[in-house]
Amino acid sequence: MTRRPGRARRGAALLATVAVTVLVPLAATATAAAPAAPGPSAVGELEPAGAALPVEVRITAVTPQVLDAGEDLTVRVELRNTGDVPVTAPRTALHLDSGSFISRSSLDRWRTAAPDARTGPARVEDASDVPLPPGATRTVQLTLPADRTGLGPAWEDWGAHGIAVTVVDEADPARTRLGSARSFMLWFPRDEVTPTRVSVLVPVVGGTPDTDGTTDVEELADLTAPDGRLAAVLEATATHKDVTWLLDPSLAEVPATAAGGVGDAADDGEGSTGEDGEVGTSEDATVVDAWVADLLRGTIGRDVPLLPYGDADLTALAHAGEPDVLTLARERARDVAEGTELPDTASAALALPAESLPDLVTAGFAQAGSPHAVVVGPGELLPPGALTYTPSGRTSVSTAAGDVTVLVPDERLSTAVRAGGFQVGEDRPDGDVAPTGTTPATAAQDVLAELAVVTRERPSDSRHLLIGLPRDWHPDPAIASAQLGALEAAPWVRLEPLSALVGAPDPGIDRGTLPERVTAEGAIEATTLDTVEETLATRVELAEIAEDPASLLGDPDGELLAAVATAWRADPAGRRSLVERSVATTQDLRSAVQVRSGSQINLISTTGELPVVVENTLDQAVEVGVTLRPQDPRLRVDDAPLVTLAPRATETVHVPVHAIQSADVGVAVELRTSEGVLLDDSTVMEVRVRAEWEGIGTAVLGALLAIGVVIGLVRTVRRGRTGRRSEPVAAGPDALSPEEESG
User: Fold this and answer.
1) What is the spatial distance between Cα 21 and Cα 499, in angstroms, rounded to a whole number?
2) Contact, 178 vs 54, CB < 8 A?
3) Cβ distance 144 to 73 under 8 Å?
């Protein structure tokens, strides 16, 4: 029970109550009839004109929001002549319907009444002899004294009462209504009430992620700029500490480009181009940094459950059977919470599937690792039609993983806060557009009236409702803040963090169950997810060739989580591009060490070495194994040398081989990591193996040598025989020389 501070219990006798209830309206009528204070007799019930009204009336303030007995009611309005003729003598009247609303549908009838429909008696007027020209605007303030409300202190009358402001031209004999606006006055002459508990859940998520899993810095700068969606969310909710932020923790990290990754642009404001060709600026960094600082300050003292990092798509992961990816996203979320100024209580305790009505597979999958409450969309899992009151927004469903707590937002209240006003009737606006004429004042009175009726449905029973906003909520900060402020102040409402609803007992209302399986429109397909995982695993293996593998990897976990982000539901083509970039990055690493194709190689012996020219295009040294894979068994490889290549260097590696038989053999050159992971095998060399040439050459040389020996011997023999045929006859000892004979 909530007791209004400073108010004593009323013990007035029944006679006094009746006297006040009866005589106050009579006094109001009598006073209004006096010439000095024109009252209801001056205008009374106006006949509807049945046409569009030329004066736009906007109620800009209703003070106080909750009226107590003895308090005056002040309504400030803004009049704007949208017609083509002046209003000569505008007379503005405040109407009050003394009957209180007892159902939510009766509130709708008041909200959707035609501009010229009946409004109830006028209680106070403001007459002016100053014309209102076409296009002109004027502010009028109407104060209804406490003794003219026609409302007594009886508790049965507490709640919402219809008020309306109408405009006529006093110079018009027909007194045709020229403008009209409706709202509610909240009457609460009570000491205490059992309040309706209300939780407000606001997802705080970014846009489509970059390859590290965080929102692209340029897109984030747009979202956090003064007119951006995320800036509006913080402006609307930051001062309301009982509003629960369901946060994508990647937003709590200052992106690398925002933290100085824009290079020298931090000082001169010029942009720099990143790896993806996108340009960041110091202005972007400043905007993002300021918003992140505001976000972290706003989490102090607030209930901040965390989404899986990057807002991973639960349904897609559930359908693909990827619990490890969900675990990775949640662990990374916890790491961010521990490494930033997020509250110590920030944890992954809620699941918000992309589908308004998720399936049982997803609900059960969300329980992986620890229990998580699952939030469905407003208007889903409705209570039985026979129920005559609004139940708490909590139920449970049975899944293969066990019973799951399901939180069910109230459709009407969620719509009112999302759009800035209640969208009812056949002519309600589409999307997040507030009804015409909505102001912060009327939006606040609207939600108070709705919850007053809900509370009166079962005034002794406390129920807990949920207002759930969508991921793309882009509020009008003034309207949304006024609505939330009204909920904080109303005595029949208690605004509480969402954790109170999660921990509340199940009300036991049969809301049915979730579908067995739904189609996840735009979600990442299992085959695409497999491609990303295989691509990143391969990159990790390939990076081992380098002295500093981490410098070649980027952020594989971030890349994986980026691909499964829920934001891609609206942009499947963008996700395909992201995946293609991941594949290309891995392929670039695979081709960083290359084989230069050479000319045909001749091998004319049974053993030898084949030269392979290898080029390292990286800025750091790498270690690779060079292996040859002959396409013919007549050539065999003896070894696979492991070589270290200097940065941006080219080296010839000699691979030992031996030939079995002559042949022309295609030989694929394989580059592998030290662990044997294939880098590249696209180069094929042509090797002409002529193993018998070595034997033939030897035989020829032998034959030539033999022939040379034979020739030498023959020549030697022949020289010997010739010497014997030409030898002269030797002179005997007795023979005389001619000289001796002549002497």
Assistant:
1) 44
2) yes
3) yes
Rounded to whole angstroms, how far apart are CA atoms 452 and 463?
13
For the record, the structure tokens of 670 come out as 């394989």
Q: CA-to-CA distance for 359 and 604, rounded, in angstroms?
A: 71
Please give the backbone phi and psi of residue 670, each rounded to the nearest 5 degrees, phi first. Answer: -105, 130
**DSSP run (H or E) holding 270:** none
Decide if 349 contacts 407 (C-beta within 8 A): no
Between CA 424 and CA 435 the distance in angstroms is 9
Per DSSP bridges, beta strands 196-204 and 464-468 are: parallel
Nearest CA among 311, 321, 209, 211 for reference residue 583 = 211
Confidence of residue 273 (pLDDT cuts 50, 70, 90): very low
| Cβ atoms of 516 and 360 closer than 8 Å | yes
Buried b (16+ CB within 10 A) or exposed e, 231-246: bbbbbbbbebbbbbbb
Task: Compute CA distances 656 → 605, 628, 645, whole Å.
Answer: 12, 10, 19
Cβ proximity of 163 and 448 under 8 Å: no
How far apart CA 542 and CA 672 sit, in angstroms, is 9
Structure tokens given for 460: 């002794």
- C-alpha–C-alpha distance, residues 392 and 406, integer Å: 11
User: 64: cis peptide before it, omega within 30°?
Assistant: yes
* Integer Cα distance of 452 and 493 in angstroms: 8
Q: Taking a C-beta distance cutoff of 8 angstroms, is the pair 296, 342 a contact? A: yes
* Residue 374 β-bridge partners: 351, 406
Angle at 472 between CA 468 and CA 477, to 5 degrees: 80
pTM score, whole prediction = 0.82
User: Any idea of the CA torsion for 717, 723, 726, 727, to the nearest 10 degrees?
Assistant: -140
**Which of 212, 96, 104 lies closest to 456 in space, CA to CA?**
104
- Quote the CA–CA distance of 681 and 668 in Å, as a whole number: 6
Digit-coded pLDDT (tens) for 171-212:
999 999 999 999 999 999 877 889 999 999 999 999 999 887
**Tokens standing for residue 505:** 């007992």
Q: Domain limits of the chain?
A: 2-193, 196-269+279-422+433-502, 526-590, 593-693
What distance in Å separates the CA atoms of residue 651 and residue 645, rounded to the nearest whole number? 7
pLDDT at 582 over 90: yes
Residues belonging to the chain:
743
Tokens of 440: 């912060």
DSSP 3-state of 629 = strand
DSSP-derived 3-state class of residue 121: coil
> Hey, is 421 helix, strand or coil?
coil
- Asked if CATH classification 2.60.40.10 holds for the domain at 2-193, the reply, yes or no, is yes
What homologous superfamily does CATH list for 196-269+279-422+433-502?
A: Glycoside hydrolase 38, N terminal domain (3.20.110.10)
pLDDT tens for each residue of 86-131: 999 999 999 998 888 989 999 999 999 988 888 988 999 999 999 9
Residues 99-134, buried b or exposed e (16+ Cβ, 10 A)?
Answer: ebbeebeebbebbbbebbbebbbbbbbbebeeebee
Higher pLDDT, 338 or 1: 338
Burial class (CB in 10 A: 0-12, 13-18, 19+), 325: buried
Tell me the C-alpha distance between 411 and 429, whole Å: 16
The answer to whether the CB of 44 falls within 8 A of the CB of 29 is no
User: What is the H or E stretch that residue 741 is in?
Assistant: helix 738-742
Give the number of C-alpha atoms closer than 13 A to the C-alpha of residue 398, restricted to the C-beta side: 2
422 φ, ψ (degrees, to nearest 5) = -75, 130
> Structurally, what CATH architecture does the domain formed by 593-693 represent?
Sandwich (2.60)
Same-fold call for 2-193 versus 593-693? yes
Rounded CA-CA distance 68/71 in Å is: 6
